[in-house]
Design a protein that fits this description.
The complex is a heterodimer of chains A (206) and B (227).
Chain A: H1 16-32, E1 34-35, E2 47-48, E3 52-53, E4 59-64, E5 70-74, H2 77-90, H3 97-104, H4 116-121, H5 124-131, H6 144-155, E6 160-165, H7 171-183, E7 188-195, H8 201-205
Parallel strand pairs in A: 2-7, 4-6, 6-7
Antiparallel strand pairs in A: 4-5
Helix pairs in contact in A: 2-3, 2-6
Chain B: E1 3-12, E2 15-24, H1 28-44, E3 45-46, E4 51-56, E5 76-81, E6 87-91, H2 96-100, E7 106-108, H3 115-122, H4 124-138, H5 144-160, E8 165-170, H6 176-188, E9 194-196, H7 201-211, H8 219-225
Helix pairs in contact in B: 4-5
Classes of the chains: A alpha/beta (206), B alpha/beta (227).
Chain lengths: 206, 227
């Protein structure tokens, strides 16, 4: 009986083509996408048919949480440091260069000015955790929100203000922020929305 | 593909004998790494930029009497945003007896058959012209810039004559989504003249008459009426 010879076949698959495809995909993602900014609270913006895109630079985003906490983020780090310095001067708080630097690296901020120093001492994880519970005070007694906006405008005159609020935010809270902006003669601003799926202005008309 | 042919031409005895050495590079780890990077980019980035809605609010500066732009009564539409996604509207100006009439205020919703149908009908003249313009745009007879310019001119012209002026009055019970929805309707219905205005006491009273819900009333009104 002759031995049954099992022919050994190499299972080597050529991965070069696959590699080409993945590199192409990677390049596509790197070029077209922008990084998601870390935000202290998750808000779901309401949808609209508006198709205007938000500009890339000189944006001051005002984040409004359903319970009324306000957070802010600016896209230029040198601006943030200058604004903090000016707001600090208003309240007679001086910040060291290191503190300014640390503050400007935060992705978004929103806390009472007297808490900034102790906040900067915390570790990054702790910062994220505590920031959720803070928020810029904008009540009638001590409206720090107005000061932030005012100084942000002084530092960067080209700044555009964008309001990003959760869809469930009660109107009085939004109207409070709008009134603050109105007091500062900031009458033009943007409201951030997400695109309504499957619906646009043309479809509604036809 | 990933084979490198290296010729080792060895001349021996005049015979041209070529020995082929195949050099294969295994690309599997490379693919693994790329996939990992792609996954990372997909999770950490957003492809689309968020949309925005540009809004102009009136300034708080006092305007002299007379300079104030008066709204023609026939074209005025007032939209009240109530609680639980309800919309109420009335046309024209309310008078003393109309405050007492619960039918003066109509109830509506944010759907296409609701407030949109009303506004489209009110603004029919403008919408027809804009539609004609859009057909031209699709047929490439005019450019995008021309379209924008002409449509804004149509709106401007109409606001002097027939186009409605919409006053949006959100109650404290409405939320941000309601506000955006209504602003959206303004865009869909091509309404150029609209404003967000604080709720007046009379509007509160009408809402109360309509819904029998004292939540719309102010504290003072509640005491006055003994509710």
């Amino acid at each position: 009986m002759p031995k049954v010879k099992v022919k050994r076949k190499s299972t080597f698959i050529d991965m070069t083509a696959m590699s080409d495809v993945t590199v192409l995909l990677l390049t596509f993602f790197m070029l077209t996408s922008t990084f998601i900014k870390k935000e202290p609270v998750q808000v779901s913006t309401p949808s609209s048919v508006s198709e205007i895109k938000i500009p890339d630079v000189d944006i001051l985003t005002v984040l409004i949480e359903p319970s009324g906490k306000i957070f802010m983020s600016m896209d230029r780090q040198d601006n943030i440091a200058n604004v903090l310095k000016k707001v600090g001067e208003d309240y007679n708080i001086e910040f060291t260069d290191l503190q300014l630097k640390k503050f400007s690296l935060l992705p978004s901020f929103g806390l009472a000015i007297d808490k900034v120093k102790s906040f900067l001492e915390l570790s990054t994880d702790k910062q994220d955790e505590t920031l959720k519970t803070l928020g810029i005070p904008n009540d009638t007694i001590d409206n720090q929100f107005k000061r932030w906006i005012k100084h942000a405008r002084e530092v960067n005159p080209d700044l555009r203000i964008a309001i990003k609020a959760d869809r469930t935010t009660p109107y009085p809270i939004v109207s409070g922020v709008m009134n603050d902006l109105r007091d500062l003669r900031e009458n033009r601003y943007n409201l951030i929305t997400s695109l309504k799926a499957g619906a646009n202005a043309d479809a509604a008309l036809n | 593909m990933a084979e490198v042919n290296t010729d080792k031409g060895g001349d021996k005895g005049g015979k041209n004998k070529q020995k082929k050495v195949t050099l294969r590079v295994d690309f599997t780890p490379m693919v693994d790494m790329n996939m990992l990077l792609i996954t990372f980019f997909m999770f950490c980035t957003s492809l689309s930029k968020p949309q925005t809605m540009e809004i102009n609010m009136p300034s708080k500066d006092k305007i002299n009497e007379g300079e104030e732009n008066k709204v023609r009564e026939s074209s005025a539409v007032t939209i009240l945003l109530g609680k639980e996604d309800k919309v109420y509207y009335y046309l024209g100006m309310p008078t003393q007896e109309k405050y007492e009439d619960p039918d003066f205020l109509s109830e509506s919703d944010y759907s296409a058959e609701g407030i949109r149908a009303l506004l489209l009908e009110k603004n029919a003249g403008v919408n027809r012209l804009i539609k004609e313009l859009k057909v031209k745009l699709q047929a490439k007879e005019i450019t995008d810039e021309e379209f924008k310019l002409q449509s804004s001119e149509i709106k401007k012209e109409a606001s002097k004559t027939t186009a409605p002026t919409v006053m949006i009055k959100p109650t404290d019970e409405s939320n941000y989504k309601n506000l955006i929805d209504v602003l959206d309707e303004m865009q869909i219905c091509n309404i150029a003249a609209y404003a967000i205005i604080e709720l007046a006491d009379g509007d509160r009273y009408m809402l109360f008459k309509k819904t029998n819900d004292p939540i719309y009333l102010t504290e003072a009104q509640r005491q006055e009426g003994g509710y």
